[in-house]
Amino acid sequence: RLIPDGPGPDEVLRRLRVYFEVRPFGGTARELGAELEAADRPAFGLYGPGGLYLVALRRLPDPGSGWPEDRPEAWRQVDVGLAQVLIVERAFGVDDPGRLGYTRDLAEAVGQVDAGRYRWAVILRPPRVEEVVALARAGVEMPPKSTYFYPKPLSGLVLAPLDQELPEAL
What we know:
The protein has helices spanning 9-16, 29-38, 79-91, 106-114, 129-137, 155-159, and strands spanning 2-3, 20-24, 43-48, 51-57, 120-123. It is α+β, with helices and mostly antiparallel strands. α1 (9-16) packs across α3. It is globular, with a radius of gyration of 19 Å. The protein has one domain. Helices cover 32% and strands 14% of the residues. The protein contains 6 helices and 5 strands. A 5-stranded antiparallel beta sheet has the order 1-5-3-4-2, sandwiched between helices.
């Protein structure tokens, strides 16, 4: 997630500390990505004014009072849902996904901030297939731009009837 503007660094960090442990990260963005993959709880990277930060969930918001009623409860169980609500919406005050930039490439995210196109980059672990399946079974949509699967299935393969005989030419 790429954030174009918003509150200053001190205010963003203050807002994050309500639910997260926030600490400056002394390594590279690539090293931070590896640290996120190894984390045993929801964790995120943040890059912007002041450098690189490791942001790890300290506590979940209460379902009745701390979690917005218009956001699916199931989002509390996946990193991308927590990031959307607690980081993008609460810490940065961005509730319109159209204002955000998106990239799956860590180096590109850092480059966009360094070039001044965006002020902050929120670095997320990709959602696991099990998380996507669990939300789908619950009838809940994922937050915008939260999945990237490769290779993409061929649309003709998905739409072709599989119960018919193939022509001899094939």
